[in-house]
């Protein structure tokens, strides 16, 4: 028993270092406090389902959990940051692999549903696309939208829908995710996870972006060529690179096209930086887990990145109308 306690204390001290978990110890402490209530609520819900009714024994009876909430959050963070295998984490704690797998399966969905931090608004988080557009309208934010692809495991042969994951651009099995950032590259939302064969614009339309643009006519966005049809539908709100002029076009028109092609990506590059922050976390460089858990993994990482990005200095004065507008959107 004493040896097991020493092993867990050593593992907790080592894995809490930012090099392993990707967060400062202060940020990690705040995260554990925020997850305590939803974790306990979900745990009680699961126990209620297993018992099939009310508790039959006094609280605290029965076997004690092998990992505390702090340890569960730590192993999840280290796995998300470094993609360290469950078996390796189990060896560090002197436990079975299934215990670590269960802990990660419990904490990862809580991180994925925690929402995205709002700059200059501590405690307020964005959960849906409607929240993002309400925030952009209230604060006068010029959104940046871009899709990113992550290579995933190839589905088994002869399985229906196997070709849906083959990206026409990368010629690999991928999953696409759309990221929305502000003008300073801070992640405001990440979602619309779809198989790699689906077009970026189709993925966002299926999330309801066209409806949000109609509801919020003052919200503007910078996009790349993949969203040209959306820009054609909302020319006053969505800005995409112009089409290349024909070879016989006047020289001045071709020069103007080149200059615009240079300026527009420079305004949109910040969302590329946001995606690059996400890819610093090992699972999003090449995802080797089950494809069914990719959406939660990506969203959890993006939410953690947004926490750090929201603390960056802002040059914008916050609006007092944001909370009211967001509540109306919901």
Automatic annotation (TrEMBL):
<dbReference type="Pfam" id="PF13613">
    <property type="entry name" value="HTH_Tnp_4"/>
</dbReference>
<keyword id="KW-0479">Metal-binding</keyword>
<dbReference type="Pfam" id="PF13359">
    <property type="entry name" value="DDE_Tnp_4"/>
</dbReference>
<dbReference type="InterPro" id="IPR027806">
    <property type="entry name" value="HARBI1_dom"/>
</dbReference>
<dbReference type="InterPro" id="IPR027805">
    <property type="entry name" value="Transposase_HTH_dom"/>
</dbReference>
<feature type="domain" description="DDE Tnp4">
    <location>
        <begin position="145"/>
        <end position="304"/>
    </location>
</feature>
<protein>
    <submittedName>
        <fullName>Transposase</fullName>
    </submittedName>
</protein>
<feature type="region of interest" description="Disordered">
    <location>
        <begin position="232"/>
        <end position="252"/>
    </location>
</feature>
<feature type="domain" description="Transposase Helix-turn-helix">
    <location>
        <begin position="66"/>
        <end position="115"/>
    </location>
</feature>
């Amino acid at each position: 028993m004493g040896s097991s306690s020493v092993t867990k204390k050593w593992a907790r001290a080592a894995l809490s270092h930012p090099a392993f978990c990707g967060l400062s110890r202060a940020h990690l402490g705040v995260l554990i406090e925020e997850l305590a209530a939803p974790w306990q609520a979900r745990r009680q819900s699961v126990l209620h389902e297993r018992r099939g009714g009310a508790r039959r024994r006094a609280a605290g009876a029965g076997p004690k959990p092998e990992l505390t909430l702090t340890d569960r959050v730590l192993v999840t963070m280290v796995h998300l940051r470094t993609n360290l295998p469950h078996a390796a984490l189990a060896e560090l704690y002197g436990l079975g692999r299934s215990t670590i797998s269960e802990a990660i399966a419990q904490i990862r969905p809580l991180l994925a549903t925690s929402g995205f931090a709002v700059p200059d608004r501590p405690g307020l988080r964005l959960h849906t696309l409607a929240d993002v557009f309400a925030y952009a309208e209230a604060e006068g934010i010029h959104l940046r939208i871009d899709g990113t692809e992550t290579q995933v495991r190839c589905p088994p042969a002869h399985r229906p829908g196997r070709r849906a994951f083959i990206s026409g651009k990368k010629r690999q099995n991928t999953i696409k995710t759309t990221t929305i950032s502000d003008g300073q590259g801070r992640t405001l939302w990440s979602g619309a996870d779809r198989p790699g064969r689906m077009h970026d614009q189709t993925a966002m339309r299926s999330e309801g972006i066209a409806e949000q643009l109609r509801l919020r006519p003052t919200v503007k966005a910078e996009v790349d060529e993949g969203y040209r049809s959306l820009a054609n539908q909302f020319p006053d709100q969505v800005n995409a690179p112009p089409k290349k002029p024909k070879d016989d076009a006047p020289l001045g028109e071709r020069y103007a096209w080149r200059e615009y092609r240079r300026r527009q990506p420079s305004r949109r590059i910040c969302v590329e930086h946001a995606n690059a922050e996400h890819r610093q976390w090992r699972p999003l460089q090449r995802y080797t887990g089950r494809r069914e858990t990719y959406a939660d993994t990506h969203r959890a990482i993006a939410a953690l990145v947004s926490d750090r990005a929201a603390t960056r200095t802002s040059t914008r004065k916050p609006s007092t109308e944001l909370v009211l507008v967001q509540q109306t959107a919901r």
